[in-house]
Design a protein that fits this description.
Helix content is about 30%, strand content about 15%. The protein has six helices and seven strands, in the order βββααβαβαβαβα. Helix 3 runs parallel beside helix 4.
Length: about 230
């Protein structure tokens, strides 16, 4: 997959995505809007592939689903400080354009005070050995748990652009569902929910990657999932 190489009130969110490959949490972003004083500030880590980085098909900069999701949550009065680590062609097993797998990206994105860690993907893992996929997904989720033991985990499986995904992508989906269940994570299945089925208007000319409209659509799907997780504070 192609790569892209982020006293009445208090402030919170930026329209720009925060992509950190250094492992250091970025400074709080430029204020986007004001929210009520006393609203909790939630740190959210995101790990993903080119569906998160954006590509030439769409999703660069402020068009990325991550940026759009933060904007939506900001408008809803949620204070989110995000940290995104994503890499084109990366998966739990398959190394991306810069040699990373999701476990490496997890080490870069996740911090001890994170309220939520979001994993999205990856269709790049199609064709890998199921036992290796299971082991590396387990290790990746374990890293997130060890770094941020009080965080919630939201695992979004690999998407597909039609109603007939190959069997090995379904294996990836099923393995991730099982591993997510084992660690108490919430699992979301874009394939069974038909996120992109019969929606060619959301996919670029390459037939694989979302265009800007596709990123807006993903933000519409994912922002409520993030909000639901953050609303379940203990």
């Amino acid at each position: 997959m192609k790569v892209a190489v982020g006293h009445v009130a208090t402030v919170v969110i930026s329209v720009a995505a925060l992509v950190s490959l250094s492992g250091h949490r970025p400074s709080p972003p430029r204020p986007y809007q004001m929210v009520a004083r006393g609203t909790p500030i939630d740190h959210v880590a995101v790990v993903g592939d080119s569906y998160t980085t954006g590509t030439d098909e769409g999703g660069w900069g402020t068009s990325a689903w991550t940026n759009r999701a933060w904007l939506t949550l900001s408008r809803q009065g949620m204070q989110v400080v995000p940290n995104v680590a994503s890499e084109g062609r990366a998966g739990y097993v398959v190394r991306g354009d810069h040699g990373s797998v999701f476990e490496d990206l997890t080490n870069r994105a996740v911090h001890p005070d994170d309220a939520l860690v979001v994993f999205f993907g990856s269709r790049n893992d199609h064709g890998v050995d199921p036992a290796q996929m299971s082991a590396m997904a387990h290790d990746t989720f374990d890293v997130a748990r060890r770094i941020a033991p009080s965080s919630k985990l939201l695992v979004i499986g690999p998407p597909w652009t039609n109603a007939d995904p190959p069997i090995d992508v379904l294996y990836v989906r099923d393995i991730l569902s099982g591993q997510a269940n084992d660690v108490g994570a919430t699992f979301i299945d874009p394939i069974s929910e038909g996120w992109f089925v019969d929606r060619p208007d959301l996919i670029g000319p390459d037939g694989v990657h979302p265009n800007d409209a596709g990123h807006a659509y993903m933000a519409e799907k994912i922002a409520p999932l993030i909000r639901a997780q953050l609303s379940r504070r203990s």
